Amino acid sequence: MFARPRTWLLALALLAGLALVVAMVVVTLGRPPAPTPLPSPNGYDDFLKAGAAVSANIGDYYTLSNDALRDLISTNAESLRLLRLGLTRQCALSADAAMTNTASMMNDLANMKRLVLLLIAEGRLRELDNQPVEAAHIYLDAIHFGNEISRGGFMITRLVGIACEAIGRVPLSRLVPKLTPAEARRVIAELEKMDNTRITWDEVSRNEKRYFYHALRQYPNPLLWAQSLWNLRAARQRGAEKNNRIIALERLVAGELALRCYYSDHACAPARLEDLVPGYLSKVPLDSYTGRPMIYRPQGTNWLLYSVGPDLVDNGGRPGRTADSRPGDVFYNAP
């Protein structure tokens, strides 16, 4: 006799909860941004053609001999040509096509990873031929490529782009001691140019918002929306940290090269980072984690230059360890 009012109350409470979930989603996301017109010609189309044309297994390039590497590069010369052609053009992923065919997008991203490995194989060949400056500029192409494939894409696209940048950044950082001051200045100029034109995390977030709205329309379930929104927030935080890390590492490479150039000219380390501007850098390198200048400490003829890293704490120049997530500072040659 008294169960019916309780049932109605539970139903009303459930409806109110669902309405709250919908309101949270709407308020949090706001209106989905309008799609950005695609460039024409679009360098991303060149990347797609280049990825489809890659032949042979690229993953084991590090074990190949000089001759085998030469054969690999020669066999895939057309893919490398198309990749570099794409780097000369404006690039953007067709977000609408990607949202309606996720499987195809994931296959394309896998091809992008193969392309960047092909670039690194070419760079390794140049190193084996004792051509470090040529290798350095190939690794710069890999960093540039990682940024360009991120344009117009979603969080997953940017994460692949970050991975590609890291694949180029690691061998570039190993070449830092081998570059002459003149060669270093050319690398610094390229790194600063890419830093000034890199895709921002705000752009990635706007594109991800469009993707999220598209997904919500496919699954009109408010409870699933709430779970997806919670997962999205966590994924954004992890993605933003990875984005901050690659930016910090690339700025640290430029800063380290500039410090070495200064030392070559003056036989001492500069007293302040500001002393590198404008002779060696166009501006003081900022820590992407804090928005403040990188930590710099001259130590006689040597120096410390580092980012505070994701814990946002200056640990006095103690490197962090990714293996056990130990907090610490981030240096240009961090793994």
Would you count the extended β strands for me?
Answer: 2
Name the helix and strand elements from N-terminus to C-terminus, one letter apiece.
HHHHHHHHHHHEE
Overall geometry: globular
Q: Mean pLDDT, as a whole number?
A: 88
Intertermini distance: 69 Å
Count of discrete alpha- or pi-helical segments spanning 4 or more residues: 11
Low-confidence stretches: none
| Strand residues, percent | under 5%
* Multimeric status of the protein: single chain
Topology:
Elements: H1 3-29, H2 43-53, H3 66-75, H4 77-87, H5 95-100, H6 102-128, H7 132-148, H8 155-175, H9 181-197, H10 201-218, H11 222-266, E1 295-299, E2 302-306
Antiparallel strand pairs: 1-2
Explained architecture:
The protein has a domain at 43-269. It is 63% helix and 3% strand. It has a two-stranded antiparallel sheet with strand order 1-2. The longest helix has 45 residues, at 222-266. With 335 residues, the chain is mainly alpha-helical. The mean pLDDT is 88. The protein has helices spanning 3-29, 43-53, 66-75, 77-87, 95-100, 102-128, 132-148, 155-175, 181-197, 201-218, 222-266; strands at 295-299, 302-306. Helix 2 (43-53) runs antiparallel to helix 4 and helix 6 (102-128) runs antiparallel to helix 7.
